[in-house]
């Protein structure tokens, strides 16, 4: 039985060409996969940013509405106190003084907390050294 086999010089050449073609296809597929992966990552980052922006805008809206409510409540309290004290100016003065006291307490409480945390940090720095 006689078989027609291609010459040995042609067979490796064909195998190399096929191997080269498959390697090129593999590289192209890998490049496409990397590009898709980058696109997916970019879309995920964009979605996170959009979610944070929406959350920030919602918090801003709620904060503005709460601030507006506080302003109206303070005006109502000032007018009520003014009516009770006999003149609207007195009511606004009492509310302003109350707000000044609250601001002073918060200011000095914050300074006290900052001083405590600063001394705690200094003590911990000395302990580390």
Describe this protein's structure.
Pfam families: Phage_holin_3_6. It comes from Rhodothermus marinus (strain ATCC 43812 / DSM 4252 / R-10). This protein has 129 residues and is mainly alpha-helical. The chain has one domain (10-128). It contains 2 helices and no strands. Helix 1 (10-85) packs across helix 2 (88-128). The longest helix is centred in the middle third of the chain and has 76 residues, at 10-85. It is rod-shaped. It starts with 9 loop residues before the first helix and ends with a helix.
How would you concisely characterize the structure shown here?
This protein is mostly helical and 129 residues long. It has helices at 10-85, 88-128.
Topology:
Elements: H1 10-85, H2 88-128
Organism: Rhodothermus marinus (strain ATCC 43812 / DSM 4252 / R-10)
Pfam family, one: Phage_holin_3_6
Keywords: Membrane, Transmembrane, Transmembrane helix
């Amino acid at each position: 039985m006689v078989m027609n086999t291609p010459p040995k010089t042609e067979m490796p050449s064909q195998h190399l060409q096929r191997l080269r073609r498959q390697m090129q296809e593999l590289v192209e597929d890998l490049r496409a996969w990397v590009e898709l992966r980058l696109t997916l990552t970019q879309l995920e980052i964009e979605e996170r940013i959009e979610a944070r922006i929406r959350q920030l805008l919602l918090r801003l809206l709620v904060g503005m509405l709460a601030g507006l409510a506080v302003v109206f409540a303070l005006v109502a309290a000032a007018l009520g106190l003014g009516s009770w004290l006999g003149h609207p100016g007195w009511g606004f003065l009492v509310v302003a003084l109350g707000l000044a006291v609250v601001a002073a307490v918060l200011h000095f409480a914050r300074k006290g907390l900052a001083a405590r945390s600063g001394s705690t940090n200094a003590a911990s720095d000395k302990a580390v050294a």
